[in-house]
Amino acid sequence: MQALLVLCTCPDEASAARVAETLVAEHLAACITQLSGARSVYRWQGAIEHSAEVQLLIKT
Q1: Beta-strand relationship, 5-10 and 31-44
Q2: Which family would the database say this protein is a member of (predicted)?
Q3: pLDDT tens, 1-60?
Q4: pTM of the entire structure?
């Protein structure tokens, strides 16, 4: 079996907690670390956007 590390961002703590709980409950992840305070900078529809996000480190 190959272990994987998946990075995922969520818009807030509540949705990150739901994703983490669901993935572990469904045996799709062995462990998930939830990191608050992530900031993303990206281009969207011609403008540069800044977003506060919650980073998930999903380990299989």
Answers
A1: unpaired
A2: Belongs to the CutA family.
A3: 789 999 999 999 999 999 999 999 999 999 999 999 999 999 999 999 999 999 999 999
A4: 0.85
d(CA 10, CA 3): 22
For residue 19, give Cα distances in angstroms to 1, 24, 31, 33, 39.
23, 9, 12, 11, 19
Residue type, 18: R
Q: Which residue has the tokens 């409950």?
A: 25
H or E, element range at 27? none
Cα–Cα dist 13/32, whole Å:
13
